[in-house]
Specification:
Layout: H1 2-5, H2 48-53, E1 59-60, E2 63-64, E3 90-93, E4 100-103, E5 109-110, E6 115-116, H3 124-131, H4 137-143, H5 152-163, E7 165-168, E8 175-178, H6 187-195, H7 201-217, H8 221-256, H9 266-269, H10 273-302, H11 311-315, H12 333-351, H13 354-357, H14 362-370, H15 376-391, H16 395-410, H17 414-432, H18 443-446, H19 473-479, H20 491-506, H21 535-538
Antiparallel strand pairs: 1-2, 3-4, 5-6, 7-8
Helix pairs in contact: 4-6, 7-8, 8-10, 10-12, 10-17, 14-16, 16-17
Length: about 575
């Protein structure tokens, strides 16, 4: 009796996050306290929790709030009453501020065509093939890396060769071989990436980025330009290949979200195999996401609030959107507990329905089974001795399927799919132990923490410090003194310090009596000395090497365009805020 009523027994049982080995029992959600809101002076308003439990997005002015299956966004533009959602994601101008903002579309856009993804009309088997694409055996054999011996330079060279096509300047008649102009792709490049999908993905993205920066930092401009073109092209290929998967998952969100709390999952999660697979992924991602939010809420409750001494620990725990004036998210423990328990029940109800779960792809079913097993050795034994024989699948094929699923999931938005994605990576690593797939040629390029020179680290590039403007935030933070409790001195000393720092950064004196900040006066032609970066931040790095500007017009820098040329003839950095225009109120 005491055990049943203990606080521990009322906690949600974690099923889908980064840990494994939790039971399948879910406590009664009626025992979880529910936050409510009431007001005597205002009409009853649907609480944020009630909106979430209804499968709706939280409604906040000017912000796209979260739902149980999708993230909140302070940058996205919400729809106004009566406004129609665009077909694909579009950049629109906020009528209240004049700022360009993103408005999410109803469909995923294929960046190659610039139009909404089109799912096959030939039948459900073809749509499943779009969700988990592959190539014919002979194409795979021709393109496949030999993972036992392949090196990163070989991988990059072969990817470059597969992406290279004959090009021609129609005006001059000049012909050459190169990467197709963006956003064009070739079938051989798609085939090559699909043949090696489990070996490429986000780790190749990171590697190409580092190699491009490495070449730049060594002032090897031609190599940097070529690597940048290949990097951008590979990102386009990844986006194009994963677009149908993302569209099918988006369709599944529309099934699951509005039915949150409905345990009759067959009424809205039935359908073709590709649809049920997507429904399960959405359900499992929802569980993993809300379990992470539950863990964050527990951790926040356990951090002592001793007059701000643990402020940083509180700051980096959980979703920072909770600090907004009207948070578009659910984050308090009592409310999160209610949602995570229901999410667990819905996912369990799906798994318990043989008609929904039993014929899903083996790698998807394995995720559900594997999360109930503790320890890597026990997991591998279960895979080899039970799961693979029962599902008539080869262990090597299962490991490859897991990695291909992971690469598709990595192209989903981090919130709410990141938690399940990292769980998939942990499963990929655990199941590969003791096999040839455990070899990782990427590690010395993207995870080399020992080599700090070009000679002993093939992914190393030399960073450097900059000359920051004297009114920049960087110089303000460099010069600001830490005011610690008990060591700040008198009130007058603290006031003088804060006034001086605000004067330096903002150009005004809120305390009175000080002279105006010269930086706010008319600019004069003066030659400034190099900024001496504090030693603890410079950490021995060189100053103003300049290699970030090496590519010039070949680099697509944010905020720098042809129109941003100063009187000196040199490009000057501009910011989006410089292009904002005042929105005039209608008469």
């Amino acid at each position: 009796s005491n055990q049943k009523n203990s606080p521990k027994s009322r906690e949600p049982i974690l099923l889908g996050g980064g840990e494994v080995g939790f039971t399948n029992e879910v406590p009664d959600s009626s025992k979880i306290p529910v936050a409510t809101a009431s007001s005597k002076n205002a009409p009853p308003k649907k609480s944020k929790l009630d909106q979430e439990l209804s499968g709706e997005r939280i409604q906040e002015d000017g912000i796209v709030g979260e739902s149980v299956t999708s993230a909140a966004s302070v940058s996205d533009m919400p729809l106004y009453p009566g406004e129609q959602q665009p077909d694909v994601t579009t950049v629109v101008t906020d009528p209240d501020t004049g700022i360009a903002r993103i408005q999410q579309g109803k469909y995923v856009m294929d960046k190659v065509t610039g139009k909404a993804v089109v799912l096959s009309s030939l039948g459900p088997e073809y749509r499943l093939a779009q969700m988990f694409p592959g190539v014919p055996p002979e194409v795979r054999e021709q393109n496949r890396y030999d993972w036992k011996t392949v090196t990163i330079p070989e991988m990059v060279d072969r990817l470059r060769a597969a992406s290279t096509v004959p090009l021609k300047n129609s005006a001059t008649g000049e012909e050459w071989l190169g990467i197709p102009p963006h956003p064009q792709i070739s079938n051989p490049a798609v085939d090559f990436v699909l043949s090696n999908r489990d070996y490429l993905g986000h780790r190749m993205k990171k590697t190409l980025g580092r190699l491009k920066l490495r070449a730049q930092s060594k002032f090897e401009k031609d190599e940097a330009v070529e690597l940048r073109a290949l990097w951008k092209h590979f990102l386009l290929l990844e986006d194009h290949i994963s677009a149908p998967f993302r569209q099918i998952i988006l369709n599944a969100e529309a099934n699951v979200g509005p039915n949150f709390g409905n345990l009759d999952v067959k009424s809205y999660c039935s359908g073709e195999l590709y649809e049920r697979t997507a429904n399960y992924i959405v359900l499992k991602s929802m569980v993993a996401h809300w379990e992470k939010k539950y863990n964050d809420a527990v951790e926040l409750d356990e951090i002592p609030d001793d007059e701000g001494m643990n402020f940083m620990a509180q700051l980096y725990t959980g979703d920072p959107k909770r600090y907004l004036p009207n948070p578009p998210i659910i984050f308090r423990l009592a409310e999160v507990s209610r949602i995570v328990v229901m999410a667990q029940k819905m996912c369990k109800a799906f798994v318990d329905e043989p008609d929904l779960f039993d014929d899903l792809p083996p790698e998807v079913k394995f995720v559900e089974k594997a999360l109930g097993i503790q320890g890597g050795t026990a997991l591998r034994r279960y895979m080899l001795e039970e799961f693979c024989p029962e599902n008539n699948v080869d262990p090597g094929s299962l490991r490859e399927g897991l990695k291909r699923l992971y690469q598709q999931m990595f192209n989903m938005q981090i919130d709410p799919y990141g938690d399940l994605t990292m769980t998939l990576w942990n499963l990929c690593a655990a199941t590969s132990v003791g096999t040839d797939e455990a070899r990782d040629p990427y590690e010395e390029y993207i995870a080399n923490v020992r080599g700090m020179k070009y000679e002993d680290n093939p992914g190393f590039f030399q960073t450097y410090t900059f000359n920051h403007d004297k009114n920049s935030l960087v110089r303000f933070l460099d010069s600001a003194k830490v005011i610690e409790k008990g060591t700040a001195g008198s009130t007058e000393d603290v006031t003088r310090q804060i006034q001086g720092e605000a004067l330096q950064l903002l150009g005004f004196d809120f305390g009175g009596g000080s002279s105006p900040n010269p930086a706010t006066a008319q600019k004069e032609t003066v030659v400034e000395k190099d900024y001496e970066v504090p030693a603890d931040r410079a950490i021995g790095r060189p100053h103003m090497m300049g290699w970030l500007d090496l590519l010039g017009e070949d680099e697509e820098l944010s905020g720098v365009g042809k129109e941003d040329v100063g009187e000196s003839g040199k490009k000057e950095e501009t910011f989006e805020a410089d292009k904002w225009e005042e929105v005039k109120a209608e008469a």
